[in-house]
Amino acid sequence: MKLHVDWNKRHAEKRELSPESLAKVNELMTHVPEGKHKSALIRVLHLAQIEFGWLSIETMDYVAELLKIQPIEVYEVATFYTMFHLDPVGKHVFEVCRTGPCMLVGSDDIISHIENKLNIKVGETTEDGMFTLKTAECLGACGYGPMLQCRHKNHEFLTKDKVDELIDAYRSGQFES
Ligand code: FES
């Protein structure tokens, strides 16, 4: 859970979504009643994060402008969900579930193994910018733990060997999309 947000470290250049993403936003708006634009917020934040990699203050302000809502309304949502990155992250973000059921089957060992393998701690990014390691609360695959999610892809029943293979696969671009 985020207890503190250091807003001073969360700036980037002002950005705009690509025409393709803007077209998706406009299409989305056709399904949203006037005055209820906030209901599209999570979808638009996902689009912004896919395009920019993370959500800077400038990006969140831009999303607020797009949806004609107050910036604070965007901050409230973006800071609540761990799936939104408020700092720059690596190309691949490993989010390891650490809630009870996954913890009982070894998520702590998996987290430690990834830390050692990548030489980073939870919340850090490798020097080459390839991987960021995060932990997350239940990702909805409780019967398949230990598990991690990366780019909305689940990797389940993890062992240390499987993690090693996974890291190699991401490094070699096997999961590019
Ligand atoms: S407890 Fe790990 S996916 Fe639900």
Structure description:
- By secondary structure, the protein is α+β, with helices and mostly antiparallel strands.
- The chain has 2 domains: 7-80, Arc Repressor Mutant, subunit A (Orthogonal Bundle); 92-171, Glutaredoxin (3-Layer(aba) Sandwich), CATH 3.40.30.10.
- It has 7 helices and 4 strands.
- It has helices spanning 19-29, 41-52, 57-67, 71-80, 100-104, 107-118, 160-171; strands at residues 92-97, 131-136, 148-150, 153-155.
- Strands 2-1-3-4 form a 4-stranded mixed sheet, with helices on one face.
- α2 packs across α3 and α3 crosses α4 (71-80).
- The chain binds FE2/S2 (inorganic) cluster.
- FE2/S2 (inorganic) cluster is lined by residues 97, 99, 101-102, 138-142, 145, 147.
Radius of gyration: 17 Å
* Count of separate DSSP helical elements: 7
**Helicity range:** 40-55%
What's the total count of β strands? 4
Average pLDDT rating: 91
